Automatic annotation (TrEMBL):
InterPro entries: AAA_dom, DNA_Partitioning_ATPase, P-loop_NTPase
Domain of life: Bacteria
UniProt source species: Corallococcus terminator
Coiled-coil region: none
Protein name: ParA family protein
Pfam families, sorted: AAA_31
Domain AAA: 3-171
Length: 253
């Protein structure tokens, strides 16, 4: 199962925005998509149409004594019948702390996936802005780990930090890639400097440049994806191109 995860230590760089849009774009392209929302903030679940609720959350299928099978946790997105979501919830922060004392914590993700009775075409994972037990388990398993890089100062420092963390948990295989987000056509000098700096990074940088887009931000404010609010707006095409690029890298047919 090709698995694509969005991870950074730095917060607010676009992990959830890119993850939710790639999930929606791949579902719209006809794939059966499973999104694991491992962020207690649960923004990806909300953006993809789920209401805040008290039901089981993705972390209930994790750990030494899972309360639920993943089958019992997953819900279908109300907007896309082939997009399945294992939702996040604020109480996951406490569940994550329990994982730390577990000897198999780095295998938490494949163990949880064994409790799913069907095979998704592709798995997308959103993570919180920290290297906790969830993020480590995800980086250990995902075929492609995407680190969104915002255009501007300190961006590449954040990339170096996640690269170190990824290399520490990842024994072999897998790819860490950078995705440039918040690209602003109105700041050409910054863009040139950014492209120069990107030449020196040691991980592959994806071709897609996701623009800073009012429409993407507005869609998020309304807990929607831009494909549903303004499908032709600035950024929508680039997000679809990002989804295609990632699908190819992850080996999705
Ligand atoms: N390309 C973009 N254009 C406009 N706004 C964007 C873009 N990408 C992200 N944003 C906005 O930036 C904010 C942070 O994005 P997002 O929540 O996706 O980041 P994150 O890395 O998931 O944050 P956290 O670390 O808290 O989980 C949100 O308000 C989002 O709408
Ligand atoms: Mg997020």
């Amino acid at each position: 199962m090709p698995t694509i995860a969005f991870c950074t230590i730095k917060g607010g760089v676009g992990k959830t925005t890119l993850c939710a849009h790639v999930a929606a774009a791949l579902a719209d392209a006809g794939h059966r998509v499973l999104l694991l929302d491992l962020d207690p903030q649960a923004h990806a679940s909300l953006v993809l149409g789920l209401e805040t609720r008290d039901g089981p959350c993705v972390a209930d299928a994790f750990g030494p004594r899972p309360k639920h099978k993943l089958d019992e946790v997953v819900v279908v997105s109300p907007k896309r019948p082939n997009l399945y979501i294992a939702p996040g919830a604020p109480r996951m922060a406490a569940l994550e702390r329990e994982l730390f004392g577990w000897g198999h914590r780095l295998q938490a993700l494949p163990r949880a996936l064994k409790t799913l009775s069907w095979t998704p075409d592709v798995i997308l994972v959103d993570t919180p802005p920290s290297i906790g037990a969830f993020t480590e388990a995800v980086m250990c398993f995902a075929d492609v780990v995407v680190a969104p890089v915002p255009t501007g100062a300190f961006a590449l420092q954040g990339l170096a930090e996640i690269e170190t963390a990824w290399r520490e948990v990842r024994e072999d295989g897998g790819q860490l890639v950078a995705a440039v987000n918040l690209w602003d056509r109105r700041t050409p000098a910054t863009n040139v400097a950014m492209e120069e700096a990107l030449k020196d990074v040691t991980v592959p940088v994806l071709r897609a440049r996701i623009p800073r887009s009012e429409s993407i931000n507005q869609a998020g404010l309304g807990y929607e994806v831009v494909f549903d609010t303004s499908p032709n707006a600035s950024g929508a095409e680039e997000l679809r191109a990002l989804a295609q690029e990632l699908a190819k890298r992850a080996g999705l047919r």
